[in-house]
TrEMBL record:
<keyword id="KW-0460">Magnesium</keyword>
<dbReference type="GO" id="GO:0005829">
    <property type="term" value="C:cytosol"/>
</dbReference>
<dbReference type="GO" id="GO:0009228">
    <property type="term" value="P:thiamine biosynthetic process"/>
</dbReference>
<dbReference type="GO" id="GO:0008972">
    <property type="term" value="F:phosphomethylpyrimidine kinase activity"/>
</dbReference>
<keyword id="KW-0067">ATP-binding</keyword>
<keyword id="KW-0418">Kinase</keyword>
<keyword id="KW-0808">Transferase</keyword>
<protein>
    <recommendedName>
        <fullName>Thiamine-phosphate synthase</fullName>
        <ecNumber>2.5.1.3</ecNumber>
    </recommendedName>
</protein>
<dbReference type="GO" id="GO:0005524">
    <property type="term" value="F:ATP binding"/>
</dbReference>
<keyword id="KW-0784">Thiamine biosynthesis</keyword>
<dbReference type="GO" id="GO:0004789">
    <property type="term" value="F:thiamine-phosphate diphosphorylase activity"/>
</dbReference>
<feature type="domain" description="Pyridoxamine kinase/Phosphomethylpyrimidine kinase">
    <location>
        <begin position="16"/>
        <end position="266"/>
    </location>
</feature>
<keyword id="KW-0547">Nucleotide-binding</keyword>
<comment type="pathway">
    <text>Cofactor biosynthesis; thiamine diphosphate biosynthesis; thiamine phosphate from 4-amino-2-methyl-5-diphosphomethylpyrimidine and 4-methyl-5-(2-phosphoethyl)-thiazole: step 1/1.</text>
</comment>
<keyword id="KW-0511">Multifunctional enzyme</keyword>
<dbReference type="GO" id="GO:0000287">
    <property type="term" value="F:magnesium ion binding"/>
</dbReference>
<keyword id="KW-0479">Metal-binding</keyword>
Length: 268
């Protein structure tokens, strides 16, 4: 009997030479979940577990070449977007998605990466407004962590009400839903609370915090897992639930690892 075709998932994101986050985490996740991953690389970061040494944005025409090549032969069942390094890239990806969506309905999951876990800035200053205006309306789901939520909403996110208000504000930019990840919150140290806001309903997903130093790549892995599960046919809300469970498993898998001198990668 013929096997069903493996879903194709694209990642439009940056490379992490340390293999913990970015494109590398995305491909590990897609493969793990039975999808074929394709990549359009936005930037090359030279980094290891202790920090980012340099970041080089890919020229916008090289980014578009990658997307066009994929479109000619490997149409996606879902797209994950991670790091966009500058405003030119935001505009180019937005324009490309408009063209793609005119011929194919494809879920877009955007992880609005701006700062590496080490604290190093990865994007050009001031692309937040452009992202909200141009890219958000094309996204089925945006997955900010609390720093990214604060960056985009320009509002404090220190308690549940503020997080909810900021998510509601960002939703007015036109994305279908937001999943705010609470891994950086210190409100309840023993648990992690993520908020899924779809414009009507807000659901908090509460999970136990896994005590691990090896958390690098959790945001990338979560958004990639959501894209993969969506490509596999899960409705968005279910995809969020199983993707969160997948990241929890990865945190437990990576718990005892000692990869590099700094915070190591989440397990896959
Ligand atoms: N993308 C790239 C290329 C990165 O280097 C990083 C962090 O260093 C990220 C995304 C975000 O990583 P995380 O999943 O830990 O938030």
């Amino acid at each position: 009997m013929q096997q069903p075709r493996r879903p194709i998932v694209w990642t439009i994101a940056g490379s992490d030479s340390g293999g913990g986050a970015g494109i590398q985490a995305d491909l590990l996740t897609f493969a793990d979940l039975g999808c074929h991953g394709c990549t359009a690389i936005t930037a090359n970061t030279a980094q290891n577990t202790t920090g980012v040494a340099s970041i080089n944005a890919v020229p916008v025409e090289v980014l578009i070449d990658q997307l066009n090549a994929l479109q000619r032969d490997l149409l996606p069942d879902a797209i994950k977007i991670g790091l966009l390094a500058n405003s030119e890239q935001v505009l180019a990806v937005t324009e490309f998605l408009h063209r793609l969506k005119a011929i194919r309905s494809v879920p877009v999951i955007y992880d609005p990466v701006a700062v590496a876990s080490s604290g190093d800035t990865l994007t050009e200053d001031g692309i937040g407004e452009l992202v909200l205006r141009e890219l958000f309306p094309l996204c089925d789901l945006v997955t900010p962590n609390l720093h990214e939520l604060e960056w985009l909403a320009r509002a404090p996110v220190g308690c549940a009400t503020q997080i909810q208000n900021a998510a509601q504000l960002l939703h007015t930019s036109g994305c279908r839903a937001l999943l705010v990840t609470g891994g950086h919150s210190e409100i309840n140290p023993g648990e992690i609370a993520d908020l899924l806001w779809d414009g009507v309903r807000g659901d908090w997903f509460i999970g136990d915090r896994v005590d691990s130093e090896n958390t690098h790549g959790t945001g990338c892995t979560l958004s990639s897992a959501i894209a993969a599960f969506t490509a596999l046919g899960y409705p968005l809300r279910d995809a969020c639930v199983v993707a969160k469970a997948y990241v929890q498993r990865g945190l437990r898998l990576g718990q005892g690892d000692s990869i590099g001198a700094g915070p190591g990668p989440v397990g896959h």
